[in-house]
Amino acid sequence: MYIGDIIYLLFTILIPIVFIAAIIFFVRSSKKRKEQLDRIEKKLDKVSGQAPKQ
User: Fold this and answer.
1) So where are the chain's domains?
2) DSSP labels for 3-54?
């Protein structure tokens, strides 16, 4: 096998893996961000004396 073939195979294998990993990272970070915002909102509601939203 030539070095060019090896490089091509690495790229064709790594590109889909990187793409899937990026999607998973984005979904997880979005979920964590939403959970953090919900916690902050609850704390603000508690401090301001409002009833928590349902």
Assistant:
1) 21-49
2) HHHHHHHHHHHHHHHHHHHHHHHHHHHHHHHHHHHHHHHHHHHHHHTPPPP-
Measure the CA–CA gap between 15 and 26, rounded to whole angstroms: 16
How many CB atoms within 10 Å of residue 14?
11
pLDDT value at residue 54: 61
DSSP letter (8 states) at residue 54: -
| Both structure tokens of 50 | 């409002």
9-50 pLDDT, tens digit per residue, is 999 999 999 999 999 999 999 999 999 999 999 999 898 887
Length of the chain: 54
